[in-house]
Amino acid sequence: MNSNRVLEELARHQLVDGYPLVVDLERSEGVWIHDAASGQRYLDAFTCFASMPLGYNHPGMEDMEFLDTLKRSALCNISNADLYSQEMAHFVDTFATHATPEDFCHHFWIAGGGLAVENAMKAAFDWKARLLGRTNFADDVNDLVIVHFKEAFHGRTGYTMSVTNTLPDKVGLFPKFNWPRISNPKVEFDSDGAICNDIEAAEAQACAELDAVFAKGSPTHNRVAGILIEPMQGEGGDNHFRPEFMQKLRQYADEHQCLLLFDEVQTGFFGSGAPWFWQHLGVAPDIAAFGKKSQVCGIYAGPRMDEVEHNVFRRSSRINSTWGGNLVDMVRSRRYMEIIAEDNLCEHVLELGEHVIAGMRSIAASTGAFRNVRGVGSLIACSFDTPESRDHMVRELFNQNVIVLQCGDTAMRFRLPLVMTQSESDLLLNAVESVATKAAAV
Ligand SMILES: Cc1ncc(COP(=O)(O)O)c(C=O)c1O
C-alpha cells in the first residue's frame, strides 16, 4: 500500500482521528518516529500513550534467539490460559523475577489495560462476597462497591467505566454503577519541587469522605470490596499523592476488610525508574493491575487473597479469557525486561527524569508559561493556566515535530522512552522553550 494512501484508505472503512502521519516501522529508530508519508521524523515524547518502553527498533531486539522465538510464537495464536508452552513459562519466570515484587504469588494475564483493572475488581468482589459468607453462586452481591477517586481513569470496559471520570465523552450515555467517588488529594509543587498547596486539608477532606463510606449505618458499611487508585493519576492530570495518604488508604483497607487495588497500567513497568510506581511511595497494594509498557496486561496479587479459600486465583474459570494474554506479547515483554536489566535503564531513566524536570523548571521560571512541574523517571508533567494555553503548547510542539500528550484540564505530560539520551531530551526542552518564549512575548 502506498504510504500516501494509508489515511485515505483507512478513512473509507473506519474513524481516523489519530495523528496525521503514517509510521514507518522500518525506519523509525529509538526516540524518532519516521513518517512514511512525508519523510519527516518526529521526536517521540508520547511513546504510544506510555506503552513503548524502548522506542523503535532497539538493537537488543535483533537478538537471534529472541527473533526465532518471536516468529515461532507468531505463527499460531494459542490459548495461553489453558495450553502451556516453554515460551510462556520463560516469560512468566522473567516477569516474576524482574518485575513482580516479593510476596506477590498470584498472576493473571489478559490483553488490554482496562480488562486488567476489570479483573482486579472482579477478584476483589469475589473475595469480599466470600468473606461475607456469600459463597453460593446464586447469592445476591449487588450491594458490593468499589471506592474510587475523582479524576480517575481506569479504562472503558464495563466495570471500569463506573470508576472512570476524566472526560464525559468516554463514559457518558453508557449505563454505570453508582459507587462511592472520593476527592483526590493531589499535590501541587512549587518551582523548587516543594509541596505548595494545603495537602493536609485536602487529605483530611478525602478521609472524611472515606469515613462516611465505611461508617456504621451507611449503606456501604462492610460492603466495600476494594479501594481502587492509580498511584499517580495519569489521564486525569498527572496527579501525585503523598505517601502519607497512600498509607491511610492501606489502613482503611486493612481495618475495613477490603482490598487495596492499584492501577499501574500507565505508571508501572519501569516507567518511573522502579518496576512499580507504588515502590516510590512505600505502600504496597493487595492487587496491582498492569498493562501498556508490559505488553501483556494483567494483575499480580499478594497474600491477602488467600484469606479466602476459593479465591479467583485458586478456583478455575472465575477470571479467564481465551488467549490469556498473547504469546507474541509475552515474548516481546520478556526481551524488554532482559534489556531493561542489562542496560540499567531504571537508573538511566531516573537521571534522565531529573534532568528534564530541572530543565522544565528553569523554562517555567524564565518564561512563566507553565508551573507545577512534576514527575519521576519517564513520567513528567506541568500545568498551564488555561486549557487553551496548554493546547497551544501541545499543538505548536507537534508543528515542530515533537509529540507530547495532554492530560487533565490544563496539564501537559511527557511519556519518554526509557532509552532517551540526555541530548535527545535537550531537543525536547529546546522545543518547549521556543514555544514558551514566543507565548511569553505575545
Ligand atoms: C491508568 C490506566 N488504567 C487503565 C487504562 C486502560 O488501558 P487500555 O487502554 O489498554 O484498556 C489506561 C489507559 O490509558 C490507564 O492510563
Please describe what this structure looks like.
Helix content is 38%, strand content 14%. The two termini are 44 Å apart. The relative contact order is 0.15. By secondary structure, it is an alpha/beta fold. The strands form 4 sheets. The protein has a 7-stranded mixed β-sheet with strand order 3-11-10-9-6-4-5, with helices on both faces. The chain has 2 domains: 3-58 and 344-441, Aspartate Aminotransferase, domain 1, CATH 3.90.1150.10; 76-340, Aspartate Aminotransferase, domain 2 (3-Layer(aba) Sandwich), CATH 3.40.640. The structure holds pyridoxal-5'-phosphate. The site of pyridoxal-5'-phosphate has 15 residues, from helix 5.
Number of helices: 14
Tell me the structural class: alpha/beta
Provide the number of structural domains.
2
Count every beta strand, where a strand is a DSSP E run of 2 or more residues.
16
In CATH terms, the superfamily of the largest domain is: Type I PLP-dependent aspartate aminotransferase-like (Major domain)
Order of helices and strands: HEEHHHEHEHHEHEEEHEHEEHHEEHEEEH
CATH fold description of the largest domain: Aspartate Aminotransferase, domain 2
Bulk shape = globular
The main β sheet shows up as:
7 strands, mixed
